[in-house]
Amino acid sequence: MLQNTPDCAPLPTPGLRPRRPLQAVCVLAALVTLSACSSITSRMPGITSLVSPYKIDILQGNVVTREQAAALQTGMTRDQVRDILGSPLLASVFHADRWDYVFTFRRQGQTPQQRRLTVFFKADVLERFEADELPTEAEFVASLDAGRKFDKAPPLQATEAQLKAFDERNKTNAPTTPADPPAAPAASYPPLETPGSAR
Predict the structure, then answer these.
(1) What single string gives the DSSP state of each residue in the chain?
(2) List of residues 6+ apart from 135 with CB closer than 8 A
(3) What angle do CA 177, 180, 184 make, to 5 degrees?
(4) What's the CA gap between 111 and 145, in Å, rounded?
(5) Which of 47, 68, 150, 168 holds its CA 20 to 30 A away from the CA of 134?
(6) Which residues does residue 101 pair with via DSSP β-bridges, in sequence order?
(7) CB atoms near residue 81 (< 10 Å)
(8) How far apart are CA 113 and CA 7, in angstroms?
(9) How buried is residue 188: exposed, middle or buried, by Cβ count under 10 Å (0-12/13-18/19+)?
């Protein structure tokens, strides 16, 4: 009888093949596949847009439209400016007489939008303001919807037959009884103040 000793290798079991060549083939196939992917994306940059991960829309700052900027007038107080434009994104301690309204919008597949409006105060009243090219409210809403596909809205009309079928499906068999009048309060409480007491 043979014994396995440290000097001898174990005898192969009949019917089983060694696993090393199979593992080597799998690793080699994975490496070839990965190298092929990187070479395809470098030769065909359009394919990366098909398989790129989804990135959420990033909207930061204050949206200031052309209509809001047109409502600003010199001599307005800080509260009036805040009512029109909202709270500023940047109000520096070192520049107390300046408010900055900054807006950025990033969406995958579109060029980023960035706009700035700066308001200057003198003695707590509006002295002047500087702004980038601002869109109207309609233009801004249209820029948010650009590139999105919307399904056709279903018609919101029902025929008489559909209304009757809806009524039949939702009909209750229980007879309707008038609601009981509200019950009187269970206890009566003393008044909070006695008549004629001093305040």
Answers:
(1) -----TTSPPPPPTT---SHHHHHHHHHHHHHHHHHHHHHHHH-THHHHHHPPP---EEEE----HHHHHH--TT-BHHHHHHHH-S-SEE-SS-TTEEEEEEEEE-TTSPPEEEEEEEEEETTEEEEEEE--PPPHHHHHHHHHTT---PPPPP----HHHHHHHHHHT---SPP-PPPPPPPPSS----SS-TT---
(2) 65, 66, 143
(3) 180
(4) 14
(5) 150
(6) 117
(7) 21
(8) 74
(9) exposed
Structure tokens at 72: 């600003």
Residue type for position 99: W
- Whole-number Å distance between alpha carbons of 148 and 106: 14
Lookup: tokens for 136: 């109207």
User: Residues 5-56: pLDDT tens digits?
Assistant: 555 556 555 555 556 778 888 888 887 777 766 555 566 655 555 666 777 8
User: How far is the C-alpha of 177 from the C-alpha of 50, rounded, in Å?
Assistant: 62
* Size (the chain), residues: 199
- Residue at 107: amino acid letter: R
151-176 confidence digits (pLDDT tens):
676 677 888 898 899 888 888 665 56
Which residue shows structure tokens 């109207």? 136
